[in-house]
Structure formats: structure tokens, C-alpha cells
Design goal:
Blueprint lengths: L2 H30 L9 H11 L4 H7 L6 H9 L10 H8 L3 H18 L1
Helix pairs in contact: 3-4
Length: 118
């Protein structure tokens, strides 16, 4: 076997290993993905979608147009202490790849739960 052929085989083997690792990672992410339901609180829906996309709260805050310190607002939303304003729902849906109707329903349910707890 020539040295050139040997190097080509090594390269092919490395490429095959990289493809295998990429596919394995994608399958693991797919297995961990949970589809939100209409009874999922909006904070849980946002947190799950954010973590599935490997975003931190600060990055999400920037993506949805929250100002400086917006990660604090994201934290309050995710823990159920706050509900995002209706005007921000489209930005959340777009940033997180969520269905607007589902996120709107989750917001409505979360507002209802908050008012019942008062």
C-alpha cells in the first residue's frame, strides 16, 4: 500500500467518524425534544424551547428585543413569576421556532392560572 493511499484511507475514516458523531448528536437532540402541549405553562414552554436550541437567557432576551438586563425578565417568565406581553409573543415564537397559536394559548392559560392564585 502506498503512503498516499494510506493517507486517503485515514481521511475517509476520520470523515466517516465525524458523520457518525454528528448523526448521533442529532438523534440525541431529537429524542430529548418535547412537543409543547396547550396545558404547558408558557414559562416551561419557553425554557424547554430555549434549552433545546442551546440558547442562554441573555441571548434569548436579545433575540426577542428585551433591553439591557432582559435575561432577568426571561428568568421571571421561565419560573412563572411573569408572563410575556402579548406584543412580544411573535418574537418569542420566531426566536424559538414555536407555533404562535400554541404560545398564545399557553400565555392565556398562564394568565388565567395567575389570576386564580390571587
Amino acid at each position: 500500500m502506498t503512503q498516499e493511499l494510506y493517507y486517503q484511507l485515514l481521511i475517509q475514516q476520520a470523515e466517516a467518524k465525524a458523520r457518525y458523531e454528528t448523526i448521533t448528536k442529532l438523534l440525541q437532540e431529537f429524542d430529548n425534544h418535547k412537543e409543547p402541549t396547550t396545558d404547558t405553562p408558557i414559562g416551561v414552554m419557553i425554557r424547554d424551547a430555549r434549552t433545546n436550541r442551546n440558547l442562554d437567557q441573555k441571548t434569548l432576551a436579545e433575540m426577542v428585543g428585551y433591553g439591557v438586563g432582559g435575561h432577568v425578565s426571561i428568568s421571571r417568565i421561565e419560573t412563572g413569576k411573569a408572563v410575556p406581553a402579548a406584543r412580544n409573543l411573535k418574537a418569542f415564537a420566531d426566536a424559538l421556532g414555536l407555533d404562535y397559536a400554541k404560545i398564545y394559548q399557553a400565555r392565556t392559560a398562564s394568565l388565567k392560572t395567575q389570576s386564580e392564585q390571587k
